[in-house]
Amino acid sequence: MQVIAGRLARTCLMIIACLSLASRHARADEPSAPASRCIPPESVTVQVAPFADKRVAERVAREIASVLETMPSAPCWRAHDPPRGPTIHIEVRWPDAARARVVIVATTSRRVHYGIRELDLQKLPRDGIPLAVAVATDELLATIGEQLGQDLPPSPVPSVLPSVEAPRSTPASTPTPQRFAFGPAAALDFVGPRLTLVGPDAQLLVPLTSSFALALRFGTRASMEPKRDTSLRTSGGWLAGGTLRIGPSGPRAGFAVSAGVDAMSLKSVGPNESFVDTLAVGRVGLSAYTAITPSLRLTADAYVGGAIGRIHGMTDGDRGRSAGEGIAAGGTLGVAALF
Length: 339
Hints:
By secondary structure, the chain is an alpha+beta fold. It has three helices and 14 strands.
């Protein structure tokens, strides 16, 4: 019995020793825990180059700041340089009118991580540019974070990055929103060989599309002809008309060609009688404006046309002669507020 008990004890001891040895080998084969740990960056700087529209550059900076705030640990990566985090520099450039370039440089005590992402802006509306740049920045930051988590040998610092430059030409943009324009103008009209009229106009521009607009005007007129005691003359009256304008418009200046009709109702007076004549004037012309402020324009119009009808005046008692037929011409100069 003693012999059997001794053999059983030796067998148990051998089994225990084998299990212990196997456990040691298993622990040796297990991968070691990563030495890196999640730490925030030491500093993050963002630089956005000037853009044709200042508001776009400001929105890009705000969108990138929002991306940084929403990243874990504001932001946090696994790096092999504890306790100090990397220094992150984010730069947005505009190489030309249709491209944006995001450059990120992450500097640690061991190496410099450098990444570039380019975006095509041609098919993006201007309102979508800030979000697109922020998404590209987020993706590039994630790539940099993966590089920071790799235990790589030190690398030399790259050469100094080129300075930030504004685009040479205006980036692609959405069409300028059309706005109503209303304001006063000083008008001068010539009707036939004898009738000269001056007066104020109220003008309203109603945009129909990006290239078409309806221009309306209403005003009073006074005759420039001298008063005579023995002659029938036109003293003045009112004018109303409208034209269709065709032409491009922009935020700073624009021009258009126009065609339309004016209706004039003018009073003729004489020593013994007075009466009112109504005259229609068909007209074609040119219109232009230039911006004084973002909400105020200087406007100018010139036209030529033909009088359709009769106005009696300067007849020296003979009403059979007409002063209102023939070639008509004129123009206006005014200001208009946008709303």
